[in-house]
Write a structure and sequence with these properties.
125 residues, mainly alpha, 5 helices, 2 strands, HARBI1_dom, metal-binding, metal ion binding, DDE Tnp4 domain-containing protein
């Protein structure tokens, strides 16, 4: 969670500059912007959600592995100070805006379980 909490992606998503959600594993907390698998799917809708969630995460994980194999430096720790390694995302912001996902995120008072179930009911019924 620390990586997301300190990322530009968090700022762009939570400020609604980029519309969408993040798909994460069960190590993350379910929030308004981070969607995790259902830990105990019972209904068909919950099972379909988990299936779609797993398939989506698998694609991302395969892409990450391909990138790490192609660019070996991604598999190592950063060899320079982070203060001198930051990119200027402001000049690339239009690139992020063109890659938005049209996803409606349901605000539910911060209760992750209800947020995920509302999403499942809207998208998988």
């Amino acid at each position: 969670m620390e990586i997301y909490d300190n990322s530009r992606a968090q700022e762009l998503i939570e400020n609604r500059t980029v519309q969408g959600i993040c798909v994460a594993d069960g190590g993350y907390a379910q929030t308004q912007y981070i969607y995790t698998p259902h830990s105990n799917p019972i209904t068909n809708e919950q099972k379909r959600y988990n299936y779609a969630h797993i398939r989506t995460r698998n694609v991302v994980e395969r892409v990450n592995e391909l990138l790490k194999n192609r660019f070996r430096c991604l598999s190592r720790k950063l060899g320079t100070a982070t203060t001198t390694s930051n990119l200027d995302f402001d000049q690339n912001e239009s690139r992020f805006q063109s890659e938005t996902v049209d996803a409606e995120v349901f605000v539910d008072g911060g209760n992750g379980f209800n947020i995920r179930n509302s999403f499942i009911n809207r998208q998988f019924n």
